[in-house]
Fold these 3 entries.
Entry 1:
Amino acid sequence: MAAAASATPSGSNSAEQDALKALTFQRLHPRTYLERFLAENVRPDGRYFDEWRDISVNVGSISTADGSALVRLGSTTVVCGVKAEIAEPELDRPKDGFLVPNLDLPAICSPKFKPGPPTDEAQVLSDRLNEVLVSSGVVPTSSLCIEPGKAVWVLYVDTTCINYDGNAFDATLLAMVAALKNTTLPKATYDEDRHRTVCSRKIREPLQIGRLPTSYSFGIFDGTHVLADPTSFEEPLLDTTVSVVVDNNGGLISVMQLGLGIVGGDDVLSQCIDAAKDCWDKGRRDVYGAS
């Protein structure tokens, strides 16, 4: 009994030392660390190359917003709130409102981000998100018109990352679309006599929703390995990232690439598109269903 009892702490210490050695090696030689895992057809977090992390979508958690959503993609967690204001439309687009998406990656969500003004990464992601929201027509800007040439709605779709573990683009797009789907606005009419917009205090109406886009991002490592849903450890080691956006019917909306050219070109892109549609069909077809 005494021998068995003394063996347990020793075994525990050995396991802790092994874990510490692995962590040290990971930090000092991250690329080699990843290569050794991929050589065994597995990733450091235990997933296969084409395996996606679990996802959850919860809506309506911010009572002060006109619409909101919280999304968890693995350990990556983002929260989105929609706030509406009334403004005058642009002269050349008198019947179109505005959709203004923004992503904040604060220092609190990851050691890789520092306090201060928005990072380049956050600005690039915000621009990409705006492109997808506009091209997909998730909320037709014409539906935000209150009175042509006089008053339209401006929707500020602000998202903050609470915890960053990679693939913020996919998580943020999910949160933004779910929050827009959750949004209601007060019924508004334009009073011509007083030249002002009057909003009802009792009647609220949901947004007119078009297509519902979902993004599926892949990291290309060493020109040959295609890794679905890359983590924050994998991202800095990737040659390029490919994001495939499909709508709620499985139709292709866009394919975006960031980084170097892809070895294999069209074959790799086709592989990513097929994998994205497969994931949508088998796991995320109804991801906005509860919204």
Entry 2:
Amino acid sequence: MGIQNAAAELPAMKSNPKFIFFTDFDGTITLQDSNDFLTDTIGYGKERRRKMNVECLEDRISFRDSFRDMMDSVTKPYSECIQYLVDNIKLDPGFAEFYQWSLENNIPVVVLSSGMEPIIKALLKKLVGPESEKMQVLANNAAPREGKSMDEEGGWEIVFRHPESGFGHDKSICLRQYSSLPDDVRPTMFYAGDGVSDLSAARETDLLFAKKGHDLITYCARENVPFTVFADWTNILAKCKDIVEGKTSVKEAAQQGFEAYKAGAAGI
């Protein structure tokens, strides 16, 4: 696949970038996970939600089924859910600077999320502004339940991007489209995430940024998946600048992540 064919099939390749940054949305770009926030505050609550997260992390239930269980507990009309999140969810304080740097350096940002696309786009518009439209968003969606409207109580449900997958949205499918490109075209791939929705992406990128104190680090340490730790996007920006400028390598950055974990600096 040449550059032109890659650009036609993969929008992030249109500018022939040397690097692409893929990222989870909830709890990664934002300070709070919007789906957890809905579940904890107007769904069945934090205790059961956290139990489902652990069940998923320990392979006793699929992410798809645990996430559907969470979202089914949120019965407010969909438009009210979106507004509720727009009013409450905050952006990671370092993301705006990172995103501006990425635009200036031809590093496309692709959001791979297990959340719902309308919610993500509404939050990005509010938190990042008009330039957020330059981000490609690949996520799940929502639809009316049979015989109902999305704007009535109990009227909507999650619609998975890959319903046949235990992940609901198998992020590895997108990532492999890029990682399988010929060497003379393939960009260096970064990915940032925090939790159980990112397990399908963990092995599919050149450098994984795993958020300090969250479940993704537990998984990576258990499965020997290389990673580097971040507390917020100022850490990611600094590390990416060093890599883009040739001051360090992806391999060195990943090794530093393991060392931070072993030294107790990963928050786990």
Entry 3:
Amino acid sequence: MTRIAVLGAGKVGEALLAGLLSSGRSADDLMFTERYPERAAQLTEQYGVSSVGVAEAAKRADVLVVAVKPQDIDPLLVELNELITTRTLVVSMCAGLPTQLYERCLPAGVPVVRVMPNTPMLVGEAMSAVSAGTHATEEHLTLVEEMLGSVGKVVKLPEAQQDAVTALSGSGPAYFFYLVEAMIDAGILLGLPRAVAEQLIIQSAVGASTMLARTGQHPVTLREAVTSPGGTTINAIRELEKHGVRAALLAAIEAARDRSVELGKAHEED
């Protein structure tokens, strides 16, 4: 059984551990690093997975999943450079960081796979995109796909598209939460109790997303089915278009893409 170490047990790291366990992996084949002892103890008690130091993780694991904040990557790579060999697969879940950064800072030939997941991993409904670095093989990609399949769906794509993925699906849940928040506020403005407004909107969001996933119909087709001539919905859509909601969303996603590019450039070699 492949031994996996998650370096950085924040929300995404914890979600991956939980997903791997639920898919049938043994806790004995998993480990994690965590800088805060209290949280490390809590995770070990909850999942039965051992908390280890970076050196022990590098020594024991076949796969190192890097799930630290991008700003914490440099000292971690310096440490790992002295600890791992080409037998270790490195999986990066750090937004904006290219595989070239890892390949430059780690021993020559170390295989690296870049992943952009999102927070629905916490409920087993992640959308993850994976891209191979220079030394990663199809076997490495298959292993990562299987690993991430325990917490959602996975697509393979060229690394050049990862900044777009980061902006679209990586940050995507926040856009939906923002819209739901606004719609709940609208319900309160119209006189509904907050609890009622929340129930109405959240279930509507669940139902709409389920229709998209199960019917395979284009969003336009599903929207038009709700939009009767001269009805309430078309009046609402007119106001959304009048206020430039579509254009604002496009601009927001482009801004997120640009920030992802900036994060990668910040670690380019001088």
